[in-house]
Structures are given as C-alpha cells and as structure tokens.
Amino acid sequence: MTVRFFPGSKKQKTSLILGFLSKYRVAHELARPEEFNSKIFHMGTDPAVEVDGRLFVDPNEDALKKILHLE
Predict the structure, then answer these.
(1) All domains of the chain, ordered by start, with CATH?
(2) Using CA of residue 32, residue 34, residue 39, residue 41, what is the dihedral sign?
(3) Which of 17, 27, 51, 61 is most deeply buried (CB count within 10 A of its CB)?
(4) String of DSSP letters for 20-68
C-alpha cells in the first residue's frame, strides 16, 4: 500500500492527520511541491492523503481507519 501525504495550510487539520499516521505507524511519504500541481483540486488549504492512487481530501480519523483498513 502506497500512502502519500499532502499537507495543507490549515495547521490543526494537518497535524491531526500526521498524528494519526504516527500513532498507527503508517508508512507514508510527504508529497513534493511539484506533485501538488498535478492534482485536480486546488492544493493548499485542506490536507489530503493519497492511498494507492486514490485521493482523500481532509479525511477525519474514522475515515482514515476505513481507508487504511485499521481496526
């Protein structure tokens, strides 16, 4: 499973997702700035997680558990 994280300018939401990824020890990579431009939606405000090519914008903890098949 390939997990990439796209940080947003909303620091609280970004830190919640990073905290979740750390808490459950999900191996992920931080997307490079040039990859932001290749996405369909406007990057910058809301954080996003890409899992195996599917992009999820601003997922909450319950959604991340389902997306990553945890618990």
Answers:
(1) 3-67 (3.40.30)
(2) positive
(3) 17
(4) HHHHTT---EEPPHHHHTTSSS--SSS-EEEETTEEEES--HHHHHHHT
Query: Whats the size of the chain, residue-wise?
Result: 71
pTM of the shown model: 0.83
For residue 68, give the nearest of 59, 13, 35 by alpha carbon: 59
Q: How does pLDDT run across 20-49, given as a tens digit for each residue?
A: 999 999 999 998 767 766 665 555 678 999
The predicted-structure confidence for 44-66, as pLDDT tens digits, reads as follows: 678 999 999 899 999 999 999 99
CA-CA distance, 19 to 24, in Å (whole number)?
A: 9
